[in-house]
């Protein structure tokens, strides 16, 4: 049973994922909006064939692109989902029977189960994200590397999204460099500056957080790999910030 929810999806060359995510959200949503950053593959064609409305827009950043989607929604409620995410069957059944439209909250968060290949990454769970929200009172921030829904009140729901983050550890490592540089630029432009010890402090902190605080130490060798990658990402972010400060002088 579909409900009056608009699913919004931002894409760039998501041929591999687009049909899966659209078919997934159509189990609960009666409208699907895809905002594409001029894909060179068949992403848009597949989306249209499945009944989604497709709009092409130059990439505005994660938050900016997701905020851009909102103007095309004809429903009050929006479900924002990435192409590599899926609602679990239990989550779909829960939302079908949940009267969120008459509730006291204007937004709801889900847990995310993230994977590298077929390996569930324990230290990244529950990774809560607000994804179901009222378009009239909430919306994505339009600045920053990663978008977030801005709202006054939200409720945590005990339901999960599946997040197929990376195909393998090689992809994780290759994207870590780009993510570190982009995030460093965002933080630097926000006026934040790094000290000489920040790369070491934050790198070690990220490593210990993943293994000890998040329980990754009990999840097998792949959890250690993820912790090292997180440490490297954090370390390089502050290295880049230091370099930008030096160049500024």
From TrEMBL:
<keyword id="KW-0808">Transferase</keyword>
<comment type="similarity">
    <text>Belongs to the glycosyltransferase 2 family. WaaE/KdtX subfamily.</text>
</comment>
<feature type="domain" description="Glycosyltransferase 2-like">
    <location>
        <begin position="9"/>
        <end position="123"/>
    </location>
</feature>
<dbReference type="InterPro" id="IPR029044">
    <property type="entry name" value="Nucleotide-diphossugar_trans"/>
</dbReference>
<dbReference type="Pfam" id="PF00535">
    <property type="entry name" value="Glycos_transf_2"/>
</dbReference>
<dbReference type="InterPro" id="IPR001173">
    <property type="entry name" value="Glyco_trans_2-like"/>
</dbReference>
<dbReference type="GO" id="GO:0016740">
    <property type="term" value="F:transferase activity"/>
</dbReference>
<protein>
    <submittedName>
        <fullName>Glycosyltransferase family 2 protein</fullName>
    </submittedName>
</protein>
């Amino acid at each position: 049973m579909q409900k009056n929810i608009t699913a919004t999806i931002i894409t760039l060359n998501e041929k591999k994922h687009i049909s899966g995510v659209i078919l997934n959200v159509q189990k609960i949503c009666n409208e699907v909006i895809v905002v594409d950053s001029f894909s060179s593959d068949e992403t848009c064609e597949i989306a249209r064939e499945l009944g989604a409305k497709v709009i092409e827009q130059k990439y505005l950043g994660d938050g900016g692109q997701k905020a851009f989607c909102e103007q095309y929604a004809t429903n009050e409620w929006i479900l924002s989902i990435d192409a590599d995410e899926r609602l679990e069957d239990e989550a779909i059944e829960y939302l079908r029977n949940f009267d969120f439209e008459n509730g006291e909250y204007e937004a709801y968060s889900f847990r995310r189960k993230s994977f590298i290949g077929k390996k569930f990454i324990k230290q990244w769970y529950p990774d809560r994200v607000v994804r179901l929200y009222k378009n009239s009172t909430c919306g994505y921030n339009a600045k920053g590397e990663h978008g977030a829904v801005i709202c006054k009140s939200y409720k945590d729901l005990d339901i999960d999204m599946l997040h197929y983050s990376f195909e393998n550890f090689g992809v994780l490592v290759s994207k870590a460099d780009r993510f570190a540089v982009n995030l460093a630029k965002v933080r630097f432009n926000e006026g934040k500056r790094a000290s000489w010890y920040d790369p070491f402090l934050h790198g070690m902190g990220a490593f210990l957080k993943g293994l000890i605080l998040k329980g990754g130490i009990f999840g097998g060798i792949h959890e250690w790999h993820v912790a090292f990658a997180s440490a490297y990402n954090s370390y390089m972010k502050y290295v880049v910030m230091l370099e930008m400060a030096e160049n500024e002088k």
